[in-house]
Specification:
It is built from 6 helices and no strands. With about 210 residues, it is an all-alpha fold. Helix 2 crosses helix 4. The longest helix has about 60 residues.
Length: about 210
C-alpha cells in the first residue's frame, strides 16, 4: 500500500513538474514574443517619428540655394519695377512733384508685387482670401527692403529726382537702383526661405 501511494505520489509529482515546465515554457514563449512585438512597434514609432523630424528639418532648416533666393527676389523685383515705372509715368504725365510721384510708385510697386504672387496662388485653386494672406506673408518684407534700397539710390543720386522719362539719366539710375535692390534683397529672401518664411509659404501651392 505504501509503495502504491508512493508511486501515485511520484506520478502526480512528475505530472505536476511536467505541467509546470509546460507552463514556464509557454510563459517564456509569450513573454518573448510579446516583448519582440513591443520592440517592433516601438521601432516603427521611432522610425515614423524620425521621418517626421527629417521632413520638418527639410522644410524649415534645410539649405536654401542662392538660385532659389534669386528667383524669389526676381519675382518681387518684376512687380516692383512695373509699379515704379508706371508710377513715374503717371506722376510725370499729371505734372506731380517728386514726392507724390515717388509715393505713387511705391504703392504701385507693392500692388504689382502682390499681384504677381496672387496670380500664381489663385491658379492652384486657392480662394482669394487665403491667397491674399499668403501673398502678404511672402512678399511684404521683400518688397519693403527692395523699395527702401531702390528709392534710396534714386533719392541720393544727384539729379535723378529731377530727371524726366526722356532723359537717359532717369533710366540709368533706375537700372542701377533696381540692380542694387536685387543684390541686397536676395540674402534677405534666402534667410527667410531657410526659416520657412517669405516665399517658402508659396512653394506648397506650386506642387
Amino acid at each position: 500500500m505504501q509503495h502504491e501511494t508512493h508511486a501515485a505520489h511520484d506520478r502526480h509529482g512528475h505530472e505536476g513538474h511536467h505541467d509546470h515546465a509546460q507552463h514556464a515554457q509557454h510563459a517564456g514563449h509569450d513573454h518573448t514574443a510579446h516583448a519582440g512585438h513591443d520592440n517592433h512597434g516601438a521601432h516603427a514609432d521611432h522610425g515614423a517619428h524620425a521621418g517626421h523630424d527629417a521632413h520638418a528639418h527639410h522644410q524649415h532648416g534645410g539649405k536654401v540655394s542662392w538660385a532659389m533666393a534669386a528667383q524669389a527676389t526676381l519675382h518681387c523685383l518684376t512687380g516692383c519695377a512695373i509699379g515704379e515705372i508706371l508710377g513715374m509715368i503717371i506722376g510725370t504725365a499729371l505734372g506731380w512733384g517728386n514726392m507724390p510721384t515717388m509715393a505713387l510708385a511705391i504703392v504701385l510697386a507693392f500692388f504689382f508685387g502682390y499681384a504677381l504672387t496672387l496670380r500664381g496662388i489663385l491658379k492652384a485653386g486657392v480662394d482669394f482670401r487665403t491667397a491674399f494672406k499668403v501673398a502678404l506673408a511672402a512678399d511684404t518684407l521683400s518688397i519693403a527692403v527692395m523699395e527702401i534700397i531702390d528709392n534710396g539710390v534714386i533719392a541720393l543720386w544727384p539729379g535723378a529726382m529731377d530727371a524726366h522719362l526722356t532723359d537717359a539719366l532717369f533710366w540709368i539710375v533706375l537700372a542701377i537702383a533696381l540692380g542694387a535692390a536685387f543684390v541686397l534683397t536676395t540674402p534677405v529672401n534666402k534667410w527667410m526661405i531657410g526659416r520657412g518664411k517669405g516665399h517658402a509659404v508659396v512653394h506648397q501651392y506650386h506642387h
